[in-house]
Amino acid sequence: MSAKSGFVPLLRTLSVCSLLFAVAAEAQDDPFAEYREMMGDDNPAIFVIEEGAELWTKPQGPKQASLEQCDLGLGAGVVKGAYAQLPRYFDDTRQVMDLEGRLIHCMVSLQGRDRSDILRKPYSGTGDMGTELEALASYVADQSMGMPIATPQDHPAEKATYAMGKELFFYRAGPYDFSCATCHRQDEKRIRLQNLPNLTAHANAGEAYSSWPAYRISQGLVRTMGWRMQNCAKQQRLPQLLPGSEAVISLITYMSVNGSGTEMAAPGLKR
Amino acid sequence: MLKIKSLLAVAAVSVMVSAYADSGLHSETKAVESVWRESMVAKNHVGLDRLNQTALQKACSNADDNVASNAEREQLRQAATESVVYPTDGKFFGDWQRGEAIAGNGKGMQWSDNPSDPNGGNCYACHQMSPDEVAYGTVGPSLRNYGMRGTSQAMLKYTWAKIWNPQTYMVCSHMPRFGDAGILDQQQIQDLMAYLFDPASPVNRK
């Protein structure tokens, strides 16, 4: 946390300024192009990645253990490349898990921590400084930077999870009759000024999937893919979606498999 | 009040824990609705009943975006047509300026919204309308100069029905059923009608 405290308020101020400029200059396409230009290759997520790396090796919980022995799918302690191959089936839990669900599993099983404690506040509120789950997800994702998305579809449970993700994606419900597909099945559409990726198509799905977790300039925070799902379900007028839940894992699997082969570029940088 | 809140928090967390215990391998046998249900918790005024599907929602939940059987499609269209309630005071038009505010208001029915505030129509999320508003979406067609179509009774009834329940004209439409689903009330729809048709409305400025 300490590493960020000096930078983040400054970055927030910068982002507000650039927002004003950008809206005046170029309202249509990418209001944050100017900000990106100003920041060059510097993604403020680097501070969050560092924090995640520290948390990974820090002894915590009743068992005073670190997460270094956590198996993210490529063997205990292997972080490099693991994110690009998630979600996947895990023998020990006999289920398909995504990154966030697996991280929570490791906090519980290795560190002896209480699942409901972690779930009480998995994601930051506006103005918060970031949560442990956000930092850990950033660190792990960064370790797959540049690697192609290779979510496995070998185990029958992995195939079933993809099929379920597709059904969930087209499921219409709520007072607005929306499904994920209402907003994300067509090319080149937008809501207000925000471009809507067609998540049923390879190129768009790959581009979207590979960029999460992402540093949200407007919020001054890293947001995870689980948070993105929760926020979109909210826009769908549905109840609150839970991190690491079966619906989240299935939807994520649907999108990552659709985007297979795209190079990971997370943590990304978003408006 | 505080006590109730903390009780609710405990309940929410225990539901979360059971959501975990239940998730997993059985997806091939599990119904999609129960997967949604076990993956969500009620939040503020938004309950799990939002996951119950209407016949229309069920029939339109597919990658083809269409109802598989012609007979069922016709039945759903018929039900939508019968759902439309035309203005009880016989007036199609309210105030276009109020209509403009409703068209730009994106609030309504999310768990982060205050349920005692009136819902917006959020038409700009999906439609171009006034030339002054550049932040418009493209999920629906442009409604620029909508009033050019004239104000015949047929045109007014068509547009009213479209806002009340768009499934009347296109089964599996992506537009919400603003009247039928109780998102907007009669007065708000009259105001939106004025926004679309009034010659003084910016929607109809050349």
State the distance separating the first and last CA atoms of chain B. Answer: 55 Å
User: Which overall shape of chain A is indicated by the principal axes computed on the Cα atoms?
Assistant: globular
Largest sheet of chain B: none
CATH superfamily of the largest domain in chain B: Cytochrome c-like domain
Number of strands of chain A: 8
Write the CATH architecture name of chain A. Answer: Orthogonal Bundle
- Portion of residues in beta strands of chain B equals under 5%
Shape of chain B: globular
Biggest β-sheet: strands ordered side by side in the sheet of chain A: 6-5-8
Please work out how many helical segments of chain A DSSP would assign.
Answer: 12
Q: How would you state the average pLDDT of chain B, rounded?
A: 89
Task: Provide a count of the helices of chain B.
Answer: 7
Low confidence ranges of chain A: 1-28
Please outline the major beta sheet of chain A.
3 strands, mixed
Radius of gyration of chain A: 18 Å
Overall CATH class of chain A: Mainly Alpha
Short description:
Chain A is mainly alpha-helical and 271 residues long.
Description:
The complex is a heterodimer of chains A (271) and B (206). Chain A contains twelve helices and eight strands. Chain A is mostly helical. Chain A has a single domain, classed as Cytochrome c-like domain (Cytochrome Bc1 Complex, Chain D, domain 2). In chain A, helix 4 crosses helix 7 and helix 8 packs across helix 12. The longest helix of chain A has 19 residues. The radius of gyration of chain A is 18 Å and the shape is globular. The N and C termini of chain B lie far apart (55 Å). The interface between A and B is large, with 58 and 59 residues. Strand 7 of chain A pairs antiparallel with strand 1 of chain B.
Tell me the layout of helices and strands.
The complex is a heterodimer of chains A (271) and B (206).
Chain A: H1 2-5, H2 7-25, H3 33-39, H4 45-57, E1 88-90, E2 95-97, H5 99-111, H6 115-120, H7 132-142, H8 156-169, H9 180-184, E3 189-191, E4 194-196, H10 202-210, E5 214-216, E6 221-223, H11 225-235, E7 240-241, H12 246-258, E8 268-270
Parallel strand pairs in A: 5-8
Antiparallel strand pairs in A: 1-2, 3-4, 5-6
Helix pairs in contact in A: 4-7, 5-7, 8-12, 10-12
Chain B: H1 2-22, H2 32-38, E1 40-41, H3 55-59, H4 70-83, H5 96-104, H6 153-164, H7 186-197
Helix pairs in contact in B: 5-7
